[in-house]
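Appendix B. Chain record.
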Amino acid sequence: MFEHILVAVDFSPAWARLESQLERLRALGCRRLTLAHVLVAGYTQAPEVGHGPYYEDRLEEIAARLRDRGFEADTVVYAGAVASELERVARERGAGVILAGSHGHSTLRDMFLGSTVLDLARRARRPLLLAPTAGEVPLAEAPVCRPLLATDGSKAAEAAEDAFLKILPECGRGVVVSVGRWDDDPERAHERRAVDTHVQGLADRAGERGFDTVLVGQGKPSVVIGRVAEEKAADLVIIGKRGRNPVTDLLIGSTAEAVCRQARRLTLLVPGGG
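Structure tokens predicted for this chain:
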């Protein structure tokens, strides 16, 4: 999945922090990078639309640095709607994952993922890897080695579970966390038993490369997931991007979106069913 990654390059001040994360992804098998910059079309305030060759040269400078570090790297510049163009290029180039920066919380904006990244998260039909690029988030440098899977055992989580199990052999011991409400309601005890059974099935599939299990019977899922990730020193959170009861095709799922909004580490959104 991670062998070929499409990297969304926006040339913002946060780009340097996103670029620094690429080396960490070698541990997951990343060897090839496609650097993509989308010129925003349709706005008179965007003179860069007519400066495609300028941005092509800038991308090539970045690609040259990455080739010197041992990556295969190519570049592409398109004009259009950012989210749809990135998804299209990833599909055409055969990239398994799209990598984008999430800028962290801003008191001036309600959507602190940023409208473009949120749109991409909603529309992407392949895994989306979000890297926190806000200055207040400590910049990790070690290779990714401790994945955390957040699952509720639903159909929407199946693809995320598969991704977790696929990369687990490349990593150290992982973590699986599930949050329910069985501590608040005795009549939900059967949900706890169902989660136990489901997680045991994942452990059987994982084989010798096992994982720690954390089952929490109360609390806001996104908060619990963030806390467990911190306590267990997880460096990659994996979650399905649709909730239990999607009402539109573009719904991320409230828990998945909240996890991304609060993320202080790499977060992989994996499209699921449900």
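Further analysis of this model is presented in Appendix C.
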